[in-house]
Amino acid sequence: MKKTVLAMAVPALLTAGAAQASVNLYDADGVVVDLSGAAEIQYFKGYSKSEDANLRIDDADLILTTAIAVTDSLDAVAGMGFKYEDQFNGTLSNDSGAVKNDELWVGFASDEFGTITFGRQLLISDDAGNQKDYELGTEQISFVQTEGGQVIKWVYDNGTFYAGANVDLDQDKSETTDGRQIVGGRIGARFEGFDGRVYLYDAEDISGEDVSGFNAELDYAIDAFDIAVSYGQVEYKKHANTSDKKDVDVFGISAGYQADEKTYIAVGYDIIDMDPSSGSSFAKEESTSLYANITYKLHSNAKVYAEVGVNDDEVNGADVDTDTGYVLGMEVKF
Q1: Which of 19, 27, 58, 144 is the most buried (most CB within 10 A)?
Q2: What CATH number does residue 118 fall under?
Q3: Any domain includes 5
Q4: Which Pfam families does UniProt cross-reference here (predicted)?
Q5: Residue whose C-alpha is closest to residue 294's, from 262, 316, 318, 249
């Protein structure tokens, strides 16, 4: 089969948080099968005064993908992914995680039109966010739900221009009710060290809310330095009472320096402003976070890192007492 088709198809479907490395299990007679996974464990202390440091699973994924040559320029593709959830509740007898099948899709991939897939999968909005924190930046943008079970997704990337769109169809099959639906997309371009993109999102009745908004992101790299800037705005409305709503503005800026082949240092600053409507049940909140981290690459597929951050939070005009946060982590991919 044409390697260019597979090289474009499968990575384009994996999100920023998913495993990017892969092990080739089979490649013959126009059939390619790859397996990839990621495991990430952290010793984590958040900003909350009432929270103790804890050892936790941050990421644990496994995905099997295949591409089957239909013609010289068209592949049939499929993927099955599993996410491992940490469900430790303090007793050794229950120190085991649940396994969730979070991806199960089929579709087609082509050099000409990109990749279109159908089934259970992550939405394009799952990729939103370009800041350089591991855990201690203010959450850049919250689109509430970034995966679905009835997703139709299209992605295209020719190296300079890239775009995508998806819809998660209504889970409620009843003809007498208006159930939830999510639509969204992304458009972006890369040019001489610049990489800019905009994510769009619109959802009805997600956990009782209607959610709509965007996130604009710009990355720039020159020599050993790089910078990331983002601005997002989201409106949340109660589905049963659309006058009960809040607008959230989020801004982030971060910079990184590649000190040597294995060491990367980054700092960042985030601002989030939640402004509810008059008489709203939503809280008014303003929050800022300042963080710094260092990452050491043990191998192209393995790294360790440390991060520290401080947070200033105010809810309904009252200051929230916070602690200094810190994270020590290790990630291994294959």
Answers
A1: 19
A2: 2.40.160.10
A3: no
A4: Porin_4 (PF13609)
A5: 262
pLDDT digits 0-9 by tens, 155-197: 999 999 999 999 998 666 655 455 678 999 999 999 999 999 9
Which amino acid, residue 38?
A
CB atoms within 10 A of CB 230: 23
Single-letter code of the amino acid located at 202: D
**Residue 262 placed within a domain:** yes
The radius of gyration of the chain's CA atoms, rounded to the nearest angstrom, is 21
Q: Report yes or no: 250 and 232 within 8 Å, Cβ to Cβ.
A: yes
CA angle at 17 for the pair 11 and 19, rounded to the nearest 5°: 50
**Range of 63's domain?**
22-333
Q: pTM to 2 decimals?
A: 0.89
* Ramachandran angles phi, psi of 94, nearest 5°: -115, 20
CB neighbourhood size of 167 (10 A): 17
3-state SS, residue 274? strand
Q: Does 14 fall in a domain?
A: no
Report residue 19: phi and psi, to 5°.
-70, 135
Look at the chain and report how many structural domains it folds into: 1
Q: State how far the Cα of 290 lies from the Cα of 284, in Å rounded to an integer.
A: 21
